[in-house]
Amino acid sequence: MSRNVNDAPVSDRVLEALAISRRGCDELLPEADWLRKLQRSDATGQPLRIKLGLDPTAPDIHIGHTVVLNKMRQLQDLGHQVIFLIGDFTSMIGDPSGRNATRPPLTKEQIELNAQTYYKQASLVLDPAKTEIRYNSEWSDPLGARGMIQLAAKYTVARMMERDDFHKRFHANTPISVHEFLYPLMQGYDSVALKSDLELGGTDQKFNLLVGRHLQQEYGQEPQCILTMPLLEGLDGVEKMSKSKNNYIGITEPANAMFAKLLSISDTLMWKYFTLLSFRSEAEIAKLRAEVEGGRNPKDAKVLLAKEITTRFHNAAAADAAEQDFQNRARGGVPDEIPEVSLAGGPLAIGALLKQAGLVPSTSEAARMVEQGGVRVDGAAVSDKGLKLDAGTYVVQVGKRKFARVTLSA
């Protein structure tokens, strides 16, 4: 037993729960309130209600999205009630967070289609048997025009303009639509409807989470605490992980691709991935880091991370096979599974063959790759840009990762 809150001793179990809550987080506000909630829950056996709202703006989740899901799972494993809230109503408004222009709202059909796969993918991280799934249209649609006006009366324009993206757009004379003010209000109202004790989100969601805290007080509820998680850098180590920047790892990607992408991150970024994505204890990670700093090959640690993440989204056998495939590629071998391509027109020039097989975007790029020694046919390097291949079947390789089994007919 150690540390006192309001003269009441705090158990080691509660302190451990606080440490798990804080792991990797950017901010936990107010921490003293969260400690009191944890202490009350421990004393009464009543689980806390922990909310994560996600708008189904796209059907697929990448591992950057799972940072907050991982935190939810950690709190779920402590015995608390986690609520996975699908923002089918708020998606129709469009979240303005971090935007310098009005986000186009999604149609009802797009939202329903995306939501179908969203929770299925999130269930690869959360325990679906212990997860409460809700849609915010449940309480937002019945609110109606009268209720919306009454809700809007509980927050001021001055407070709304403190929000960073609204402030910047206003001073840059960039249009702000009135409906965008409704987004943080409706997200905050979700916390009222769910009687949330804690809401999770990325650092870009802090303003919205605080609105929820304010509205709960307005409605006579105990205000929620908020926990923000950092935004995960992508494979480039610079930009936030994003499909549009092509620096992402999708959680439904094939095991071999997922494993190889995780092995490609930098030795420095690897430790942030461990903290935010791994379910290993902080003590285990610290021990591993000390070993690397003491001379152990950092690739050993990266392989452990890649196998853990690949196992989570596939299975242990797939992760083992992906490791073997990666090692085979590193030795210059051919992966077990490569695309099969059928082409006609043999004999065919190597540049045309590479382009038609989808291994290069153009024949000029093919010529450049040949010049650099990056093209192999049946394991032999190609040095002649004028090479023509007769009818037959060939294993063709461009660079380290692009392969195809090409069957060429006359």
From TrEMBL:
Any one biological process term the GO annotation gives = tyrosyl-tRNA aminoacylation
All residue ranges annotated as the RNA-binding S4 domain in the record: 348-409
Keywords of the record, alphabetical order, are:
Aminoacyl-tRNA synthetase, ATP-binding, Cytoplasm, Ligase, Nucleotide-binding, Protein biosynthesis, RNA-binding
Q: Which reaction does it catalyse?
A: tRNA(Tyr) + L-tyrosine + ATP = L-tyrosyl-tRNA(Tyr) + AMP + diphosphate + H(+)
Q: Which GO terms describe its molecular function?
A: ATP binding; RNA binding; tyrosine-tRNA ligase activity
EC numbers, comma separated:
6.1.1.1
Span of the annotated motif 'HIGH' region: 56-65
- SMART domains from the UniProt entry: S4
- The short motif 'KMSKS' region is annotated over 240-244
InterPro entries assigned to the protein according to its UniProt record, in alphabetical order: aa-tRNA-synth_I_CS (IPR001412), aa-tRNA-synth_Ic (IPR002305), Rossmann-like_a/b/a_fold (IPR014729), S4_RNA-bd (IPR002942), S4_RNA-bd_sf (IPR036986), Tyr-tRNA-ligase (IPR002307), Tyr-tRNA-ligase_bac-type (IPR024088), Tyr-tRNA-ligase_bac_2 (IPR024108)
Residues at which ATP binds:
243
Q: Where in the cell is it found?
A: Cytoplasm
Which top EC class is given?
A: ligase
Pfam families, alphabetized: S4, tRNA-synt_1b
The record's note on quaternary structure and interaction partners says:
Homodimer.
Please give the family membership noted in the entry: Belongs to the class-I aminoacyl-tRNA synthetase family. TyrS type 2 subfamily.
Its recorded name reads Tyrosine--tRNA ligase
Protein encoded by which gene: tyrS
